[in-house]
Design brief:
It comes from Vombatus ursinus. This is Glycerol-3-phosphate acyltransferase 2, mitochondrial. GO terms for molecular function: glycerol-3-phosphate O-acyltransferase activity. The chain is about 45% helix and about 10% strand. Strand 4, helix 10 (about 215-225) and strand 5 (about 225-230) form a beta-alpha-beta unit. It has 30 helices and 14 strands. Strands 2-3-6 form a 3-stranded mixed beta sheet. Among the domains are: about 45-85 and about 135-235 and about 265-280, no CATH class; about 85-105 and about 120-135, no CATH class; about 365-435, Arc Repressor Mutant, subunit A; about 600-695, Arc Repressor Mutant, subunit A (Orthogonal Bundle). About 30% of the residues are buried. It is mainly alpha-helical. Helix 21 (about 455-470) crosses helix 27 (about 590-610).
């Protein structure tokens, strides 16, 4: 990619993180599921509020003034932070309903079936000690003082939006427990969030940690700083008495969730003397009680499994998709969640999808994501396209975490990605930037994946259009030849729906209250809005502007607004026969290719997983087969350089999708479940059909 636009001088353009006067607000809660929270827990003047550097501490933040105070302001400020300790958890846990049932023998594994109540009380106290410990205020202040010094050593600033913090304060005034769920954007999340909330006067946060990653001494320290650890017995079988007791204590004691501890050394090594900037984003809070009530009022969603919806279409037996939603519910395999009843499992699964969608939406797009996407998918003039892609991101309602001179931002992005790039000085003074061939491409793919949620609708639509054109014109044919083809709305909806069924739900971020059919229409609308598709009159139809002889049907004359459905708007009165063509505007071919390539790494991994079916050694465990597939992806990347399709998460997504599709069958055994190849896919012809079905969505 060239640094400068051809035929132009160096433009000192300034990039701002907003269009117009204010930056977009992202991460609002669901208006359908939590309408009261959507209105009440939103700061009315959030757009006018700016950012605050939470690690900038001066004598103004203390009660004292003077020369010595300016040198001890970090320590004095940490000593002034308000620490409110909760009452002893022992009495609260012991008084919980589940624990009382176990002690009285009314629950499985209770006192009536074995140990005496006194012994069970000791077991409860022991389990509670494994989960948490009493917080030492002085130790907590000293630790956060040292952590503040550490953050000032590695960051120039840590930015926090004042409006987001105001919404969190407003939610805290409701006198109900606050639960924070982290998107794990950084290895320091588990330490940064408690420090942030304590320094802003929001109290001490209990953070859940992964116990397998830490030594006993480190776990003891983290417990006294507010850490929570799941007891090992909680993942035992549901009928195990120790597992029942541990899950009961955990249910009564735990209240939050976060991430890893000792990424600090990795951060020190990675920065190599260069201090950067960090930013923390909060999505809009919402009431869990309101969400639960509205979820139960809608009842269980009806749907069919991926195997019921897609398998017969893949094998060529069906040409019409079933008029039914894809079943989106999942059942976690961990012990504490399996112990919940069916309704609570449904609530957790739906809640997790809402939270994941909000956390992705509120995460700012960084300069490295824009730069990596341009280098991996476009290969054009960097300055011009960096400005264009930033503007397109803001137009779609997403926030960016950078601003400044365009040339400085591009150079900053190149410096951060220097390990994956090669720079060449050209005779005319330009700089040629090339991605390094090899495993470093996986690093570019990792950074560019942060841009996928921004253009996900358009990317799905572009791949659906690619699948429609695959059987009509050669993939390498000129854009003008592809633009001649008419694409009907029915065909576009069908191909989009096929791709939506195929892609994993954690990628699509479809909320439980959102229909896939409405999403298909949104995909089509986005393609029209961005100029890739233009309306075209189908042969033999009345012109759109000829409205003289149009008549409303009698059934449409006296209908209330509640009676209109998706079928009324899209599939009646001839709207389903609308046709479109690819636009012939100058930027459209590059933009179309860019959108298709955003999904290409994952779809390529899926296609290679289909090709691997006859080479994989089955039966095998799910983890074992995933490792087999990952090694196969690495081997193929060594042959053709496609290292952007070698991530272990892509291999795992392919295995999970093939399980849901019925390609791989799970069978229980004495040592655990194992995967077997479905009898239908022992036939080579069916394996080729599966691979071809996936490959139709991939643009080379």
């Amino acid at each position: 990619a060239s640094m400068w636009p051809k035929g132009f001088g160096v433009k000192l353009e300034t990039i701002t993180p907003f269009l117009g006067k204010y930056r977009p607000f992202v991460g609002r809660c669901c208006q359908t599921c939590t309408p009261k929270s959507w209105e009440a827990l939103f700061h009315k003047n959030i757009a006018a509020l700016g950012f605050h550097n939470v690690i900038l501490v001066t004598e103004e933040n203390t009660r004292y003034r003077g020369w010595l105070v300016r040198r001890l302001c970090y320590f004095l400020c940490a000593m002034d932070w308000k620490i409110t300790l909760t009452p002893d958890a022992w009495e609260k846990v012991l008084g919980s309903k589940w624990i009382q049932e176990i002690l009285s023998g009314r629950a499985p594994g209770g006192a009536g079936e074995g140990p005496k109540p006194s012994s069970l009380r000791r077991d409860v106290q022991h389990t509670l000690g494994q989960i948490q410990a009493s917080i030492y205020p002085f130790l907590l202040r000293i630790f956060n003082w040292a952590f503040l010094k550490f953050l000032n050593c590695i960051f120039l600033n840590v930015q926090l939006h004042q409006g987001q913090l105001a919404m969190v304060r407003q939610a805290a005034q409701a006198d109900t427990p606050l639960i924070f769920l982290s998107a794990h954007k950084s290895c320091l999340d588990g330490l940064l969030l408690p420090f942030l909330l304590l320094s802003q006067g929001l109290g001490v946060l209990r953070v859940a940690w992964e116990p397998q990653s830490y030594s006993p001494a480190l776990r003891a320290l983290l417990r006294h700083l507010g850490g929570l650890f799941m007891p090992p017995e909680a993942n035992l079988f549901l009928d195990n008495p120790k597992g029942i007791l541990s899950r009961a204590v955990l249910s009564a004691a735990s209240s939050s969730h976060l991430g890893l501890w000792w990424g600090a050394l990795a951060v020190f090594r990675g920065l190599r003397g260069h201090r950067g900037c960090a930013r923390i984003d909060f999505a809009q809070p919402f009431s869990l009680q309101e969400y639960s009530v509205n979820t139960w009022s809608r009842g269980r969603s009806r749907g069919q499994s991926l195997e019921q919806l897609l398998l017969q279409t893949v094998l060529g037996h069906w040409s019409v998709l079933p008029d039914c939603e894809k079943q989106q519910e999942w059942t976690p395999a961990s012990g504490p969640l399996l112990a919940l009843d069916e309704e609570d499992q449904l609530l957790v699964s739906r809640l997790s999808r809402h939270v994941l969608s909000a956390s992705i939406a509120c995460s700012a797009v960084m300069a490295t994501a824009v730069m990596a996407a341009l280098l991996l998918h476009r290969h054009r003039e960097l300055l011009e396209n960096f400005s264009w892609l930033t503007e397109e991101t803001l137009l779609r309602g997403f926030d960016v975490g950078f601003s400044g001179q365009l040339q400085d931002l591009v150079m900053h992005g190149l410096c951060l990605l220097h390990g994956s790039l090669s720079l060449w000085l050209l005779p005319q003074g330009d700089v040629l930037v090339l991605p390094r061939a090899g495993p470093t491409l996986a690093q570019l793919a990792y950074h560019s994946a942060a841009l996928l949620p921004v253009f996900l609708c358009e990317a799905v639509g572009a791949c659906a259009v690619r699948a429609l054109l695959a059987g009509r014109v050669p993939p390498e044919g000129p854009w003008e030849l592809q633009g001649v083809e008419l694409l009907s709305q029915r065909e576009l909806h069908r191909q989009t729906l096929l791709l939506l069924h195929l892609l994993p739900q954690d990628l699509l971020l479809l909320q439980p209250c959102q229909s896939s059919y409405f999403y298909c229409q949104e995909v089509l609308d986005r393609l029209i809005q961005c100029g890739l598709l233009i309306a075209e009159e189908a042969p033999g139809t009345r012109l759109t502007c000829d409205s003289g002889n149009w008549r409303f049907g009698e059934k449409m004359l006296w209908r209330s607004m509640e009676d209109f459905s998706d079928s009324d708007s899209d599939y009646e009165d001839g709207t389903d026969s609308r046709c479109f063509k690819l636009s012939q505007q100058l930027r459209c071919p590059d933009f179309f290719l860019f959108l298709c390539r955003l999904l290409s790494p994952l779809l390529t991994a899926f296609a290679r997983a289909a090709a691997f079916l006859h080479q994989g050694k089955l039966p095998d465990t799910e983890a074992g087969y995933t490792q087999q597939l990952h090694q196969f992806l690495l081997k193929k990347a060594q042959e053709d350089g496609s290292f952007e399709s070698t991530d272990l998460s892509q291999a795992h997504s392919a295995v999970m999708t093939f399980k849901d599709l019925g390609v791989l069958k799970e069978q229980p055994g004495s040592t655990g479940s194992t995967l077997h190849l479905s009898p239908a896919f022992t036939i080579q012809e069916n394996r080729e059909k599966l691979e071809n079905f996936i490959c139709q969505f991939i643009c080379g």
